[in-house]
Amino acid sequence: MNGQAKVSAGEVFGAMGDLARRHVGIFALATGFMTVIQAIVDIALGDGAGALFGTISVGVINFFVTYHVTEQVLRGEGLMTVWSRSYGAMFGANILTTLGVALGFVLLIVPGLYLLARWSMVAPIIVAEGLSASQAMSRSWDATRNNVWSLAAVYLVYFLMFVALFMVIGIGVAAGVATGADAESSLGTTIAAGAGASVMGMIAVLISVAVYRIHAGNGGQYEDVFA
Questions:
Q1: DSSP 16-37
Q2: Of the candidates 109, 130, 107, 100, which has an alpha carbon nearest to the alpha carbon of residue 120?
Q3: Which of 5, 49, 35, 212 is nearest to 122 (CA)?
Q4: Which end of the chain, C or N, has fewer beta carbons within 10 A?
Q5: Helix (H, G, I), strand (E, B) or coil at 185
């Protein structure tokens, strides 16, 4: 294709901010809901044998919440082209991309950021267009080929935010243990950790939908937007 449009990190951040303002209600509701669920599961099951079941339960709930938040935002932006839901495709894509990105981060972080950039549109493509996991991964890979490092910069900021947030929470937990914190303080730490995880999950949705929306606003052909 002849399109030469470039997508900068600044454009992605700008689109994220716009989406957050336009859909603040659904993001706030999802973040609050997942924070409450995480707190309830942690309190009810605690550590030990129940912790694994709790982690799996929260992961399943988070999967559906994330899917529906993505769907609602895409619908609000007029970007949905199918009405059926592709839970299976999304589940498969999550497994494949998570394994790939995790391996990339093991290999000194940069490969992980590279893969995050290349697969940044997988979720919106599946939700909006109903493609299979492999089709969505291939489409996103092709679409981002000439903007990898600007998108990787966005994910680097996200990664640094994630690390900073959970370092602060970890320091709080360590301080609580050292001072013999009471149950109320422990509950506060649990809620803070759940809220942090929920916020970071919603930011990940914002990134992927922002990149997808930039594509849609530039003519609807991946090659024309990201060439």
A1: HHHHHHHTHHHHHHHHHHHHHH
A2: 100
A3: 212
A4: N
A5: helix
Distance CA 73, CA 116 (A): 21
Q: Within its chain, how far is the Cα of 36 from the centroid?
A: 19
CB 73 within 8 A of CB 205: yes
DSSP assignment, residue 1?
Answer: -
What token pair was written down for 201?
A: 């999950």
Question: Which residue shows structure tokens 């981060």?
Answer: 105
Single-letter amino acid code for the residue at 187: L
Count of C-beta atoms within a 10 Å radius of residue 65: 20
pLDDT score, position 215: 81
Q: pLDDT tens digits for 107-152? A: 888 999 999 999 999 999 999 999 999 999 999 999 998 889 999 9
- Rounded CA-CA distance 182/188 in Å is 10
User: What is the length of the chain?
Assistant: 227
34 in Cβ contact with 196 (< 8 Å) = no
Backbone angles phi, psi at 110, to 5 degrees: -55, -45
Helix intervals (H) in the chain: 9-22, 24-45, 49-76, 87-106, 110-118, 122-129, 133-143, 148-178, 183-216, 222-226
- Lookup: tokens for 146: 């000439």
Signed CA dihedral, 173, 175, 177, 183: sign only: negative
CA torsion through residues 126, 61, 155, 70, sign: positive
Distance between start and end Cα atoms, the chain: 7
